[in-house]
Write the structure tokens for this entry.
Amino acid sequence: MPADRPYDIVLFGATGFTGGVAAEYLAAHAGPGVRWALAGRDRGRLEKVRARLAATDPALADLPLLHADTADAASIEAVAVSARVVVTTVGPYAELGEPLVAACARAGTDYVDITGEPTFVDEMYVRHHEQAVRSGARIVHACGFDSVPHDLGVYYTVKHLPEGVPLRVEGFVRVKGDVGGGTLHSALGIFAEIPRMLRAERARAAVEPRPAGRRVRISRRPVPRAKVRGRALPMPTIDPAVVARSAAALDRYGPDFSYGHFIALRRTATAAALAAGSLTAIALAQLPPARALLKRLRTAGDGPSPADRAGNWFRVTFVGEGGGRRVVTEVSGGDPAYDETAKMLAEAALCLAQDDLPDTAGQVTTAAAMGDALLDRLVKAGVSFRVLSAG
Ligand SMILES: NC(=O)c1ccc[n+]([C@@H]2O[C@H](COP(=O)([O-])OP(=O)(O)OC[C@H]3O[C@@H](n4cnc5c(N)ncnc54)[C@H](OP(=O)(O)O)[C@@H]3O)[C@@H](O)[C@H]2O)c1
């Protein structure tokens, strides 16, 4: 890792909603030993963020501000070579994210984001993974609620199951949260470009090596009613693919590993409404005028107030089976989309900058790149990982 860079961490996107929450988290938790800076395209807006941080910690009045605009390649390059770890909340990522991934892959700079966009992650793998392996950069996507609780929750569950045997894990997600402008616009981008997503998935599958002598699968089998109270619907987010990549990278997941990812809902009527609503949103996103109307539901930069976020929560239950053993675990925490996402992102950046980690490079998952170190950090930061039952 390049030690001679001016900054340990640069946060790109602090003028946005999630980036602002992440900046506040770093301000409260990075500590005086960490050299960090904010980057963005508008100096005035960056100054306002800095003034807000300095109101609670006057030492941050001199926090360095860097100019960076995704449309200005030289500014992105300058950020990538100035830091050991670059954190970005600038999205939609499929639209805006590639220049920074490319620059970090070239410069050997560690990179973390909070994307949940499968197209972006697959395209970045095909275009920049090999370069990042050569430079030593760790490119870690999905360091927010997508996909940290799921990726590290499965990692934690596997640790409580026997070694060297086939394992099957299922995750059941329950959430109370809000969708802000940036997330809505990114989700509509995914829905509008499903053919691009499928092309990216196929292009990745054609070049990505499979684990030698081991099998890793995403299970789409329906869940027996007895396993979950209420209804469980398959959750077609990026999370199961991230878990499968961790399983492919880590032998500890055993010779034959499968993972199923579900949203758990109390009532059948809620499950039916969610399924119908998702299909309607996907259908509407195909039509540019309807997509423009949907975007107007939330403006970029919008998000819920601290009071609203305080009432939000997430709880993911994992049922793991293998070698005659069964373990049920749970990962839980507060507001998934913003407070906990900002915490996971900032702790992942601090983890890459400060902790003794396994030797990895290229596009890597949170479990493969940071595993126990990030899990310990999150537990200390108030995210709960616990075993509910084991037998
Ligand atoms: N994984 C998760 O669980 C999770 C949770 C929350 C959000 N997200 C994702 O995170 C992303 C950000 O969400 P958000 O709600 O924070 O969005 P937001 O409030 O709209 O913020 C977007 C940020 O991107 C910056 N930006 C836009 N275009 C730029 C450009 N050309 N060059 C430089 N900066 C540019 C904006 O800067 P200006 O202020 O200058 O406009 C702003 O700082 C979205 O993709 C969202 O889906 C993921």
Summary: Residues 336-354 form the longest helix (19 residues).
